[in-house]
Design a protein that fits this description.
The structure holds two protein chains of two kinds. Chain A is mainly beta. Chain A has no helices and ten strands. In chain A, β5 and β6 form a beta hairpin. By secondary structure, chain B is an all-beta fold. Classes of the chains: A mainly beta, B mainly beta.
Chain lengths: ~120, ~110
């Protein structure tokens, strides 16, 4: 069974940093690209970042470029999102999702940026 | 940026009715269009990938069609458990984008 479990969310002050993790199981992790998608509670979905299976291709939304860094550890079947210089409008539930068509999603982790 | 427009924004439907949701892209995206269902307090779930390919385990009453700029998600004989918000998503061009969602409510 494919499982994706996010962790690392929480309350952080503006300008602060957080590192999100997504632990994958139930499939051959190093065969799949991985993605981060966020959702402000009660609002729509926003693509954040994508990393290819070998980390050779990495893409970011303009809203996070230069502040967020996606990475992965295939040996540990995990993908990460390092978030720096956080702003209030980064407040959202952050989901990791598998593959180009986002065929499986985690339950998400809530990031709240507030003083 | 590819803008995805969904219609309707909201639809209230009785069980066993058929539902059609459309997604229009601001330029051609071939068939790089996917549909998701999100129920309250749950994460999104893939229904249809690449415009018309059913995802494993999804009931056959969900189907998709279209290519280029115009796409459709059809739900045949709606069930009470289908109450949700439905999103389309394109990954043909960066930045990848989502439609605003269509909320389907059961009367």
């Amino acid at each position: 069974e494919v499982q994706l479990v996010e962790s690392g969310g929480g309350l952080v002050q503006p300008g602060g940093s957080l590192r999100l993790s997504c632990a994958a199981s139930g499939f051959s992790f190093n065969d799949y690209s991985m993605n981060w998608v966020r959702q402000v509670p009660g609002r729509g979905l926003e693509w954040v970042s994508t990393i290819s299976s070998s980390s050779s291709n990495i893409y970011y939304a303009d809203s996070v470029k230069g502040r967020f860094t996606i990475s992965r550890d295939n040996a540990k079947s995990s993908v990460f999102l390092q978030m720096n210089n956080l702003r209030a409008d980064d407040t959202a539930v952050y989901y990791c999702a598998r593959e180009s068509a986002y065929d499986f999603w985690g339950r998400g982790t809530l990031v709240t940026v507030s003083s | 940026e590819i803008v995805l427009t969904q219609s309707p924004d909201f639809q209230s439907v009785t069980p066993k009715e058929n539902v059609t949701i459309t997604c229009r892209a601001s330029q051609s995206i071939d068939t790089f269009l996917h549909w998701y269902q999100q129920k309250p307090d749950q994460s999104p779930k893939l229904l249809i990938k690449y415009a018309s390919q059913s995802f494993s385990g999804v009931p056959s009453r969900f189907s998709g069609s279209g290519s280029g700029t115009d796409f459709t998600l059809s739900i045949n004989s709606l069930e009470a458990g289908d109450a949700a918000t439905y999103y389309c998503h394109q990954n043909r061009f960066l930045p990848f984008t989502f439609g605003p969602g269509t909320k389907v409510d059961i009367k």
